[in-house]
Amino acid sequence: MPNAALPLDLAILPHSAWNAIGRGALGKCPRCGGTHLFAGGLKPVERCRMCGQNWTLHAADDFPPYIAILLTGHLMAPVIIGLGKVESLPEWAMMLIVLVLAGSLIAAILRPAKGGVIALQWWLGMQGFAGNSGKAEAGLA
Predict the structure, then answer these.
(1) Which of 19, 31, 32, 129 is most buried, with most CB under 10 Å away?
(2) Which residue has the higher pLDDT, 6 or 23?
(3) Model's pTM, two decimal places?
(4) Are the beta carbons of 123 and 134 closer than 8 angstroms?
């Protein structure tokens, strides 16, 4: 599968790493922002339907789950402390609330985290994107 993507106007390309990460976190193509980054679940599309960028080159691996767990832990800490102060709440109810909230948060954060990591790898030319960084393509390298 060739790695070359279609040429794009500089106005369409992201102008910063944060712009690319934002597009990826929203589930859009970090390069053109015009179509979906994910085919379903956490699997990215092979190629962007609009710009032709090859997204099989990423190596997000375990970093998105680390981000999701880190954010969930920091968001859940005050909730757990607050629930611990409620004396009328049984322990089983507290555990059920915490498990449901933590599981929901991790599920909600995981896909945006993976999109952001893929976008960052593309922007910086990391892993399979080496030599074809988004930063260089936007003329900022």
Answers:
(1) 31
(2) 23
(3) 0.88
(4) yes
